[in-house]
Design a protein that fits this description.
Elements: H1 4-34, H2 38-53, H3 57-64, E1 65-73, E2 76-80, H4 83-88, H5 90-93, H6 96-103, E3 111-113, E4 116-119, E5 124-130, E6 138-146
Parallel strand pairs: 1-6
Antiparallel strand pairs: 1-2, 3-4, 4-5, 5-6
């Protein structure tokens, strides 16, 4: 009888996890079809989430950003020229609501378009960018922040 309880709990946990895994796989497939390099996106997503989790968000966002970066703050567009400027002004450039939206982003709720992948109803956008005209190599970067 004691062995049945852990098995039942494990069965319930697996039952809860399998739909989430299937949904994540569907999102990854959609990213691959629309933007390409879904695996690279997964790595960038994890790095961004880890930044907010481990209190290194300014550095994580700065490292993942393509510069110059346009940031919408209070209806005005501010162009951030480099990582140091983003880190130094992080709390001014990303409002607490924007930071919370990014930190709490559920993988299943990402917005996927030909323009990129949106977080938090579009407060942050990432895109798979080409390193050259042939687009043989790409990388994922933050391309826009909209507070």
């Amino acid at each position: 009888m004691r062995r049945a309880i852990p098995a039942a709990i494990l069965t319930c946990l697996l039952g809860l996890a399998l739909p989430a895994l299937a949904q994540e796989e569907a999102i990854m497939n959609q990213i691959e079809q629309v933007q390409g390099d879904a695996e690279g996106f997964g790595e960038a997503f994890a790095k961004l989430q880890d930044g907010f989790l481990f209190d290194t968000a300014p550095e994580a966002v700065a490292e993942l950003t393509a510069y110059p970066l346009d940031v919408m703050v209070d209806g005005n567009v501010i162009t951030v020229s480099d990582a140091d400027a983003l880190i130094d002004n992080f709390d001014k450039l990303l409002t607490p609501d924007t930071q919370a939206a990014i930190a709490g982003q559920d993988f299943a709720d990402l917005i996927i378009t030909s323009e990129g992948v949106g977080f938090g109803n579009g407060v942050l956008w990432m895109a798979n960018l080409c390193t050259d005209d042939a687009c043989d190599e790409t990388y994922w970067a933050i391309t826009r922040i909209n507070n």
